[in-house]
Design brief:
Keywords: Signal. Strands 3, 4, 5, 6, 7, 8, 10 and 11 form an 8-stranded antiparallel sheet that branches. The protein has a 4-stranded antiparallel sheet with strand order 2-1-12-9. The chain has one domain (2-169). The chain is α+β, with helices and mostly antiparallel strands and 171 residues long. 19% of the residues lie in helices and 37% in strands. The longest helix is centred in the N-terminal third of the chain and has 25 residues, at 2-26. The two termini are 26 Å apart. The chain is globular, with a radius of gyration of 16 Å.
Length: 171
Protein backbone atom coordinates (compact mmCIF):
# COMPACT_ATOMS: atom_id res chain seq x y z
CA UNK A 1 0.00 0.00 0.00
CA UNK A 2 2.93 2.29 0.69
CA UNK A 3 4.12 1.95 -2.92
CA UNK A 4 0.67 2.93 -4.22
CA UNK A 5 0.52 6.03 -2.03
CA UNK A 6 4.02 7.08 -3.06
CA UNK A 7 3.33 6.58 -6.77
CA UNK A 8 -0.03 8.38 -6.65
CA UNK A 9 1.49 11.33 -4.78
CA UNK A 10 4.47 11.52 -7.15
CA UNK A 11 2.26 11.36 -10.23
CA UNK A 12 -0.11 13.92 -8.76
CA UNK A 13 2.72 16.37 -8.09
CA UNK A 14 4.18 15.78 -11.56
CA UNK A 15 0.78 16.20 -13.21
CA UNK A 16 0.11 19.41 -11.29
CA UNK A 17 3.50 20.78 -12.25
CA UNK A 18 2.93 19.78 -15.87
CA UNK A 19 -0.50 21.40 -15.95
CA UNK A 20 0.90 24.56 -14.37
CA UNK A 21 3.58 24.67 -17.06
CA UNK A 22 1.02 24.14 -19.83
CA UNK A 23 -1.28 26.79 -18.38
CA UNK A 24 1.57 29.26 -18.02
CA UNK A 25 2.81 28.68 -21.56
CA UNK A 26 -0.62 28.66 -23.18
CA UNK A 27 -2.11 31.57 -21.26
CA UNK A 28 -5.59 31.28 -19.74
CA UNK A 29 -6.51 28.11 -21.68
CA UNK A 30 -5.75 24.82 -19.94
CA UNK A 31 -5.31 21.49 -21.73
CA UNK A 32 -7.90 19.03 -20.49
CA UNK A 33 -6.98 15.49 -19.56
CA UNK A 34 -9.63 13.21 -21.05
CA UNK A 35 -8.05 9.85 -20.22
CA UNK A 36 -6.10 8.25 -17.41
CA UNK A 37 -4.10 5.07 -17.85
CA UNK A 38 -4.79 2.86 -14.84
CA UNK A 39 -2.17 0.31 -13.78
CA UNK A 40 -3.46 -2.47 -11.55
CA UNK A 41 -2.96 -6.08 -10.51
CA UNK A 42 -4.84 -8.60 -8.36
CA UNK A 43 -4.12 -6.45 -5.29
CA UNK A 44 -5.83 -3.39 -6.81
CA UNK A 45 -4.77 -0.10 -8.36
CA UNK A 46 -1.01 0.50 -8.38
CA UNK A 47 -0.75 3.80 -10.26
CA UNK A 48 -2.53 6.17 -12.61
CA UNK A 49 -0.97 8.17 -15.43
CA UNK A 50 -2.91 11.18 -16.78
CA UNK A 51 -2.76 11.26 -20.58
CA UNK A 52 -2.22 14.76 -21.96
CA UNK A 53 -3.16 13.78 -25.49
CA UNK A 54 -4.32 10.66 -27.26
CA UNK A 55 -1.27 8.43 -27.02
CA UNK A 56 1.14 6.62 -24.72
CA UNK A 57 3.94 4.09 -25.07
CA UNK A 58 5.31 1.09 -23.21
CA UNK A 59 9.03 0.41 -23.47
CA UNK A 60 10.80 -2.75 -22.36
CA UNK A 61 14.12 -4.55 -22.60
CA UNK A 62 13.70 -7.31 -25.18
CA UNK A 63 14.82 -10.59 -23.62
CA UNK A 64 16.17 -12.01 -26.89
CA UNK A 65 18.12 -9.01 -28.16
CA UNK A 66 18.83 -7.35 -24.82
CA UNK A 67 18.00 -3.88 -26.17
CA UNK A 68 15.07 -1.55 -25.58
CA UNK A 69 11.95 -1.70 -27.73
CA UNK A 70 8.78 0.33 -27.49
CA UNK A 71 5.14 -0.18 -28.40
CA UNK A 72 3.23 3.04 -29.11
CA UNK A 73 -0.52 3.22 -28.71
CA UNK A 74 -3.25 5.62 -29.80
CA UNK A 75 -6.32 6.10 -27.60
CA UNK A 76 -9.65 5.52 -29.33
CA UNK A 77 -13.02 7.04 -28.33
CA UNK A 78 -14.37 3.66 -27.16
CA UNK A 79 -11.73 3.45 -24.35
CA UNK A 80 -9.59 1.01 -26.31
CA UNK A 81 -6.07 1.65 -27.52
CA UNK A 82 -4.49 0.61 -30.80
CA UNK A 83 -0.85 -0.26 -31.49
CA UNK A 84 0.17 2.34 -34.09
CA UNK A 85 3.98 2.23 -34.08
CA UNK A 86 6.87 0.06 -32.98
CA UNK A 87 10.26 1.50 -32.08
CA UNK A 88 13.58 0.00 -31.04
CA UNK A 89 17.21 0.77 -30.39
CA UNK A 90 18.20 -2.11 -32.65
CA UNK A 91 16.71 -2.57 -36.14
CA UNK A 92 16.74 -6.38 -35.81
CA UNK A 93 14.10 -6.21 -33.07
CA UNK A 94 11.69 -4.66 -35.58
CA UNK A 95 12.65 -6.82 -38.55
CA UNK A 96 13.07 -10.19 -36.85
CA UNK A 97 11.24 -10.18 -33.52
CA UNK A 98 8.19 -8.16 -34.65
CA UNK A 99 8.55 -9.17 -38.34
CA UNK A 100 7.17 -5.83 -39.51
CA UNK A 101 6.03 -5.91 -43.15
CA UNK A 102 7.77 -2.66 -44.14
CA UNK A 103 11.33 -1.52 -43.70
CA UNK A 104 12.12 0.26 -40.41
CA UNK A 105 13.27 3.86 -40.77
CA UNK A 106 15.61 5.94 -38.66
CA UNK A 107 13.71 7.76 -35.92
CA UNK A 108 13.63 11.54 -36.01
CA UNK A 109 15.13 13.47 -33.07
CA UNK A 110 14.15 13.77 -30.24
CA UNK A 111 12.71 10.23 -30.37
CA UNK A 112 13.74 7.96 -27.48
CA UNK A 113 14.54 5.09 -29.86
CA UNK A 114 16.78 4.75 -32.94
CA UNK A 115 14.37 2.99 -35.35
CA UNK A 116 10.61 3.04 -35.97
CA UNK A 117 8.22 0.93 -38.03
CA UNK A 118 4.51 0.48 -38.55
CA UNK A 119 2.97 -2.69 -37.14
CA UNK A 120 1.46 -5.27 -39.48
CA UNK A 121 -1.90 -3.82 -40.68
CA UNK A 122 -3.15 -7.36 -41.34
CA UNK A 123 -2.99 -8.02 -37.59
CA UNK A 124 -4.25 -4.92 -35.76
CA UNK A 125 -3.61 -4.98 -32.03
CA UNK A 126 -6.33 -3.15 -30.10
CA UNK A 127 -6.87 -3.55 -26.37
CA UNK A 128 -9.23 -2.45 -23.62
CA UNK A 129 -7.11 -4.28 -21.02
CA UNK A 130 -3.55 -5.47 -21.51
CA UNK A 131 -1.77 -7.76 -19.06
CA UNK A 132 2.02 -7.42 -18.97
CA UNK A 133 4.85 -9.03 -17.05
CA UNK A 134 6.60 -6.15 -15.28
CA UNK A 135 9.88 -7.83 -14.36
CA UNK A 136 13.19 -6.36 -13.29
CA UNK A 137 14.76 -7.92 -16.39
CA UNK A 138 12.21 -6.47 -18.82
CA UNK A 139 12.05 -3.03 -17.16
CA UNK A 140 8.65 -2.17 -18.67
CA UNK A 141 8.04 1.56 -18.48
CA UNK A 142 5.02 3.69 -19.43
CA UNK A 143 5.74 6.93 -21.30
CA UNK A 144 3.09 9.64 -21.64
CA UNK A 145 3.44 13.30 -22.57
CA UNK A 146 3.40 15.55 -19.52
CA UNK A 147 4.14 12.75 -17.05
CA UNK A 148 7.41 11.27 -15.82
CA UNK A 149 8.20 7.73 -17.05
CA UNK A 150 6.50 5.15 -14.84
CA UNK A 151 8.71 2.11 -14.19
CA UNK A 152 6.17 -0.68 -13.85
CA UNK A 153 8.56 -3.25 -12.39
CA UNK A 154 9.03 -1.08 -9.30
CA UNK A 155 5.32 -1.39 -8.48
CA UNK A 156 5.20 -5.18 -8.13
CA UNK A 157 6.96 -8.01 -6.35
CA UNK A 158 9.12 -10.47 -8.27
CA UNK A 159 6.85 -13.35 -7.25
CA UNK A 160 3.81 -11.78 -8.96
CA UNK A 161 5.05 -9.36 -11.63
CA UNK A 162 1.89 -9.03 -13.72
CA UNK A 163 0.09 -5.71 -14.21
CA UNK A 164 -2.92 -4.68 -16.27
CA UNK A 165 -3.16 -1.46 -18.27
CA UNK A 166 -6.64 -0.03 -18.77
CA UNK A 167 -7.95 3.38 -19.87
CA UNK A 168 -10.34 5.32 -17.67
CA UNK A 169 -12.27 8.25 -19.09
CA UNK A 170 -12.13 11.32 -16.87
CA UNK A 171 -15.48 12.83 -15.95
Amino acid sequence: MRRLATVVVMLGVAAAAGLAGVAGAAGPQQQSVEWTLSVSNDSGRLAEVPLHGDSFAVSYRNSIYGTVAEERYEVRPDASYLLVQLAADQMAVLEEYYAVPGAPVAAEPPDRRQWVADPDPARPAAFTRLSLAATDLGQRTVHADGAPPLELWTLVDDGDPFVTLELKENQ
